[in-house]
What we know:
Distance between the termini: 19 Å
CATH architecture of the largest domain: 3-Layer(aba) Sandwich
Strand order of the largest sheet: 2-1-3-12-11-4-5-10-8-9
CATH class of the largest domain: Alpha Beta
Order of helices and strands: EHEHHEHHEEEEHEHEHEHEEHHHH
Number of strands: 12
Largest sheet: 10 strands, mixed
Number of helices: 13
Radius of gyration: 20 Å
Bound molecules: nicotinamide-adenine-dinucleotide, 3-isopropylmalic acid, manganese (II) ion
Shape: globular
Structural class: alpha/beta
Amino acid sequence: PDANTIAVIPGDGIGKEVVPEGVRVLDAAAGAFGFELAYREFDFASADYWTRTGTMLPGDWFETLRGFDAIFFGAVGWPQVVPDHVSLWGSLLQFRRGFDQYVNLRPTRLMPGVASPLAGRSPGEVDFWVVRENTEGEYSSIGGRIFEGTERETVMQETVMTRVGVDRVLRFAFELAARRPRRKLTSATKSNGISVTMPYWDERVAAMAQQYPQVDVDQFHIDILTANFVLHPDWFDVVVASNLFGDILSDLGPACAGTIGIAPSANINPERRFPSLFEPVHGSAPDIAGRGIANPIGQIWCAAMMLDHLGHDAAGAAVLAAIEQVLARGPEQAPLTPDLGGSGTTAELGAEIAEAVAGAGAAAG
Ligand code: NAD
Ligand code: IPM
Ligand code: MN
């Protein structure tokens, strides 16, 4: 079979440090499991590109990227050079919308060997997926500023929910829940206070639930839901949320599971009309960038999700198993990064996981 084509976009800050470790592990997986990946790296979607060109993306980015099988993305944002809303609306958010990546799938899993800030929790008790709506909702470009500079200065930004947009992400979440052993789905809402869009979200959840009688459905308002992530993480299996609520929950979940440094995300176009994009949940981390201490596992777990998406299931499973195996050895026995209590570097941890993947391939024959 032909090689899968991967567009590699490191972006800014620690994106440039963790992406090479993701590629290192992808190479190990391809070698061990006998398939080919053809990469092409792009320097756009970065502050450097902005400084050089005054834009975040070239005019033909859509045509340039659309033929790739997947996009392997680091992080974008360098607020000292370009304001965050400019860099993000100029790049990542364009990709999500342009390529109709309407599902943002983000696992939270407490891994063996990782210390959770939640006292007394062990791995099986924190293991759920956040399914985040990724193309509409609170992230809308509809709104504006009027009477600027006067005392009547007013700003507005509309939340947009469409039936197609809400139903398609709900369907994905229900399908996922139906395949999981617990078959449980929790909806994040705020229909007590946000009185138009959120009651609509609840209505569509109730309608979809009728089609999935085997799925056990509940819902919480976002405020108490965040509390329950901390108090009762074992309650959750699949959590479906609007764009903003899903954004918040997908940092909170991984923090409860020890560190946001290991959390991956898949921005998926389920119909495969366009490439899906795989990026860690975290950002460019300017506070630690350039020191070689960023945790590469979020990016490496993205590699596992991308391999699954490309149909290399055994390789994807081997990458996840390698992550688990290296984490389980703990900071004394493995070169874990400082966020995991160790003193390993980004490259040492990446190399350790790549080696475990190569070994798994050899064992699998
Ligand atoms: P951040 O995720 O970059 O960092 C938050 C905190 O977590 C920092 O203390 C950082 O050091 C730590 N951290 C993050 N990733 C880590 C890793 N892999 N290993 C160890 N520690 C890690 O969030 P922020 O500070 O709010 O944002 C910084 C920039 O990144 C901003 O420009 C923001 O807009 C952007 N951002 C981009 C994305 C993305 O590209 N998907 C996501 C979030 C934030
Ligand atoms: C994420 C990020 C982005 C988001 C930002 C950087 C626009 O926080 O991928 O979670 O809000 O979606
Ligand atoms: Mn986020």
